TrEMBL record:
The chain crosses the membrane at residues 162-182, 189-210, 216-239, 251-273, 306-324, 331-348, 383-404, 410-434. Keywords: Cell membrane, Membrane, Transmembrane, Transmembrane helix. This is Uncharacterized membrane protein YjjP (DUF1212 family). It is found in: Cell membrane. It comes from the Bacteria. Residues 37-272 form the Threonine/serine exporter-like N-terminal domain. The lineage of its organism: Bacteria, Bacillati, Actinomycetota, Actinomycetes, Micrococcales. InterPro entries: ThrE-like_N, ThrE_Dicarb/AminoAcid_Exp.
């Protein structure tokens, strides 16, 4: 009884104690924990990892002169800010609505301004509302066109024959329509990867059977569903695990593996229906595709190597359309993605594709931070993401799961780790560059 009485006394004293950290907004007292939580959930919806969100909130807290008076915890769907003196906690839930690249850029510009002290904490609610007001369902034409261009671009980059490129273009548009229709129903979101993979595999299988093309490369099937492959999710999970965010990293990793499982089941079902046999040896990373070729002619010939450079531009444009980038971010995406392709292609003969991916990630992360310093309206976390999508070997992991090939699984896992290490090393260097606060 003495212990219970002491606990009740402490709780009563804590409740009577006034809030230590507050801001007055429009005549109302708002806990700073609520402000930081609102900012954190915006970053979560923008696709940032919990490690990056916690770091951003801690920098914002320190820039406001709050020191260690507030403790910050971040989970995939909520932010917890607690008073270290009293233990009083403020919990803010994320809305769970994915933001476009343009909105993500505005969110990161807000963080830059807060860290530099150019934006006051009291401005957070109004600025977050302004950013979220731009959330709209994807426009049908850009979404479908973006999926088609992304699919065709990947098919050319990874050296598929001409017939597979044309099929990937058409199937990418079909998958875009499927995703556009089903994402309106929250209950159907979980089955979109399965249905997309099934439809893509079935169409490719029917085309291959009717035309007699017996060599079906991996990316003829995977390119149309690349937007749904959780490569970035799994890589973020590994980044969180390396940062000791065990609970979140494990949860995200399981989510990514489940999505891969759904897609692998879709590919298996589509192959069973059409009798399609995908060549598992055609799984290659970015740096390895230069040597892929064929002695076949006509529609079974492989596009010339120079076409891959054009395809990278098409790929960056398609991703920008899918994720809602403005013209500045689209231009930055093209430059960063072409640079990523060039760096990996040049380094692979010397270091191997796995190591080349990590080195490219480190170099590009630093380069995007320099770009952020010169042009604050293009944050590094946003401009780096298209290159991140190119480097992530998500589709290679997909074929490893689909074929149950333990040997094939080792390559994407090693590349995931290399990418994480490279990103971590690149993240150690931003302190060398003074980040400019946005001027508008």
């Amino acid at each position: 009884m003495v212990g219970i009485g002491s606990a009740l006394t402490n709780l009563r004293d804590a409740l009577r104690r006034p809030e230590a950290h507050v801001e007055v907004i429009d005549g109302e007292t708002v806990p700073i924990g609520m402000l930081l939580g609102t900012l954190g959930t915006l970053l979560l919806d923008a696709g940032s990892s919990v490690t990056d969100v916690r770091s951003a909130l801690e920098k914002t807290r320190d820039a406001a002169g709050l020191g260690d008076g507030l403790a910050i915890g971040v989970l995939p769907a909520l932010v917890i800010v607690s008073e270290t003196a009293t233990g009083a906690a403020t919990i803010v839930n994320a809305e769970g609505i994915e933001l476009s690249f343009r909105q993500s850029a505005r969110a990161n510009r807000l963080v830059l301004g807060l860290e530099r002290g150019a934006i006051a904490l009291a401005e957070i609610p109004a600025r977050v509302r302004s950013i979220r007001q731009g959330t709209r369902p994807p426009a049908p034409l850009p979404w479908v066109l973006g999926n088609a261009l992304t699919s065709a671009g990947l098919a050319v980059v990874f050296r598929c024959p001409w017939w597979a490129v044309l099929v990937a273009l058409a199937v990418g548009a079909l998958v875009g329509v499927i995703g556009l229709l089903l994402r309106r129903f929250r209950e159907a979101i979980a089955v979109v990867p399965f249905l997309a993979a099934f439809c893509a595999t079935a169409v490719v299988g029917l085309v291959a059977a009717s035309t007699g093309f017996d060599h079906v490369p991996l990316y003829a099937v995977c390119a149309p569903v690349a937007v749904f492959v959780p490569g970035a999710l799994i890589t973020n999970a590994l980044l969180e695990l390396t940062a000791a965010d065990i609970v979140t990293g494990s949860a995200r990793l399981m989510q990514g593996l489940i999505m891969l499982g759904f897609m692998a089941a879709g590919i298996a079902a589509g192959s069973a229906v059409t009798g399609l046999h995908v060549d598992p040896t055609s799984a290659a990373l970015v740096g390895e595709v230069a040597g892929i070729g064929t002695d076949r002619a006509g529609w079974e010939a492989v596009p010339p190597l120079w076409a891959s450079w054009v395809a990278v531009v098409v790929l960056a444009t398609g991703i920008s359309l899918v994720f809602g980038s403005g013209w500045r971010l689209t231009a930055a995406s093209v430059v960063v993605m072409v640079t990523a392709y060039a760096v990996v292609s040049w380094l692979t003969p010397f270091s191997g594709s796995v190591v080349a991916t990590g080195l490219a990630a480190a170099l590009l992360f630093v380069a995007t931070r320099v770009l952020e310093r010169i042009v604050p309206v293009i944050p590094a976390t946003v401009s780096f993401r298209p290159a991140f999508l190119l480097l992530v070997p998500g589709t290679v992991g997909l074929v490893a799961v689909a074929t149950f090939d333990a040997g094939a699984l080792a390559t994407p896992l090693a590349t995931f780790v290399s990418l994480c290490v490279g990103t971590k090393i690149g993240g150690l260097l931003p302190g060398l560059f003074a980040r400019s606060a946005p001027t508008h």
